[in-house]
Amino acid sequence: MSTTNSGLDTKTWDELREIAARYPEARSGLLPMLHLVQSVEGRITPEGIEACAEVLGISAAEVNGVATFYTMYKRKPVGDYHVGVCTNTLCAVMGGDLIFERLKDHLDVGNDETTEDGKVTLEHIECNAACDYAPVMMVNWEFMDNQTPESAVQVVDDLRAGNEVHSTRGPRICTWREAERVLAGFPDDRADEGPAAGGPSLVGLRIAREQGWTAGGTYDRSAGDKGESK
Amino acid sequence: MTDTLTPVLTDNWDAERAWTLASYEEHGGYAALDTAFAMAPDDVINAVKESGLRGRGGAGFPTGMKWGFIPQDNPKPKYLVVNADESEPGTCKDTPLMLASPHTLVEGVIISSYAIRANTAFIYVRGEILHVIRRLQRAVQEAYLAGHLGKNIHGSGFDLDLIVHAGAGAYICGEETALLEGLEGRRGQPRLRPPFPAVAGLYASPTVINNVESIASVPSIIANGAAWFAGMGTEKSNGYGIFSLSGHVTNPGQYEAPLGITLRELIDLAGGMREGHELKFWTPGGSSTPLLTPEHLDVPLDFESVGAAGSMLGTRALQLFDETTCVVRAVLRWTEFYKHESCGKCTPCREGTWWLTQTLAKLEKGEGSESDLDLLLDQCDNILGRSFCALGDGATSPISSSIQHFRDEYLAHLSHGGCPFDPAASTAFAPAGAHA
């Protein structure tokens, strides 16, 4: 897809309108529309802001206000791979701080900076809802669970070398722009990749299976004693 | 006696391709839909009321009662919005649920929308969980093709459109009125209440906002009956819930159990704390719930008992920290999170979280004096109950509870001239037997 200095291409304009039309009120489309802008432009650009404003019939200042509020929208160009290291308390304590330090050193970048080859943008992120897999790293918002400084370095080296990298609980890693397109509501073909659940998601279920514990009722696949009393 | 673990929502997570419609239907999925359609919408609401289901997103408000607040004589459209903005530190239950079995949520959305008479529903899912969003998008597409969504569902005459809406990174959007702002394409800042969303929510129309796990629990209640659900749990905290163990425990993960199970039981199931270490402090339901200690191991994890112990059940996000962890470091990091996520709308939270961070950072470095602890508590006093929404309140929880339980550890930073702990000893990849 090509873009010009004079603005976004026709396909993108059409897709922005398509997003707005999904909702009872068009402005509800703004968050996914901004994701689409990022997928095309590699960041939030003035052209993208103007386009959203025009499609929605609101001011560029209003769009700008929204774009600056949410942390996933980036003003600076993002690399092919956005690498986020969770440094909220639980992950930080479990090793996230050391992983983040190692990656900064290894990639020779600071927080929210991109490597010279334009491949990797490194950022420390907040809790990403995978605490039972701590310490957690996200690549283009795919889970890389149970990381160590060494495994994290291996991941970014593979990404920079162009090797295929898989999420530990998901699909092949796509580019950041491709990921942003999915967030805009244009699915790719990777939903069936990866497992239903990783190990920690299943620990309780496995114990229940071993013990024959159930909640009773028709929702149980295994027969067992019905829970009756409190 | 009810069994110790009661897999319901997690029960099909180990099935082959559990996320697909074929797998979900093979395990009885979408059967509850016809049961619901055979009932009057008000009877579905009554069933959820009688089940005793309370909101699983942290606040514990009775779900059926929330649905009952929707004014059915209001001529405007009604909306159901699922809060899938799972971002509270430590909370990691809705994400695996939607990844493994998105159809459980979709079926819950259809039944719940039928009950409140909404013809449009939304799943507001945080943008940072890409593969979950893919699975939700696919599940919704499959449900349309199978006739579970769209016009005249199962010949019931009920129509429903379901839209998966990806957020863009803002913890505050887990607050339900901020979420509505985000869904309306605005900055995610909370709204003044009243009016409550039930009266004037999305597009100023009657709106129910429920957590993923709450909505996902509805099909099981309709399928098995309110009495089945109410037969689990404790007197005022009915049913089952997913308990998420993370941190220094041998087998972290998801444990679905009746409300009222204790942390001691859960840690036993999880193989104990990691070898050679002992529990030091924990959160019962995310970072916004005051810290508890080993003396609270036998507190039943239900809304009332955890409240009586001085904390909150929250999202059952049990973050466990052993004796290698510096509580001051942990609390400082959470405080930096609240500062980063404060939306800026109200002064106590916007300014207060900066003050808290400055004061704490100084203490953590061993600078300042004992009177800074009183200053911190004073700052908390000026935020708690004076903020526009619960984010500000939550920011004070780790601070005031940690000073209550670990005052000496703060002082040790002053006498030591810095943190007395070795952060390497607390990592998951620390050599066995490492001690601070």
From TrEMBL, chain A:
Enzyme Commission designation: 1.6.5.11
Gene Ontology molecular function: oxidoreductase activity
Matching Gene3D superfamilies: Glutaredoxin (3.40.30.10), NADH-quinone oxidoreductase subunit E (1.10.10.1590)
Required co-factors: [2Fe-2S] cluster
Transmembrane segment boundaries: none
Coiled coil: none
Top EC class, one word: oxidoreductase
Keyword set, alphabetical order: 2Fe-2S, Iron, Iron-sulfur, Metal-binding, Oxidoreductase
Xref: CDD domains: TRX_Fd_NuoE
Domain of life: Bacteria
Family label: Belongs to the complex I 24 kDa subunit family.
PANTHER family, alphabetized: NADH DEHYDROGENASE [UBIQUINONE] FLAVOPROTEIN 2, MITOCHONDRIAL (PTHR10371:SF3), NADH DEHYDROGENASE UBIQUINONE FLAVOPROTEIN 2, MITOCHONDRIAL (PTHR10371)
Name the record gives this protein: NADH-quinone oxidoreductase subunit NuoE
Organism: Nocardioides baculatus
Gene name as annotated: nuoE
TrEMBL record, chain B:
Protein name according to UniProt: NADH-quinone oxidoreductase subunit F
PROSITE patterns, alphabetized: COMPLEX1_51K_2
Alphabetized UniProt keyword annotations: 4Fe-4S, Flavoprotein, FMN, Iron, Iron-sulfur, Metal-binding, NAD, Oxidoreductase, Quinone, Translocase
Organism: Nocardioides baculatus
Family membership noted in the UniProt record: Belongs to the complex I 51 kDa subunit family.
Gene: nuoF
The NADH-ubiquinone oxidoreductase 51kDa subunit iron-sulphur binding domain, residue ranges: 328-373
Annotated GO MF terms: oxidoreductase activity
EC number: 7.1.1.-
Role this protein plays: NDH-1 shuttles electrons from NADH, via FMN and iron-sulfur (Fe-S) centers, to quinones in the respiratory chain.
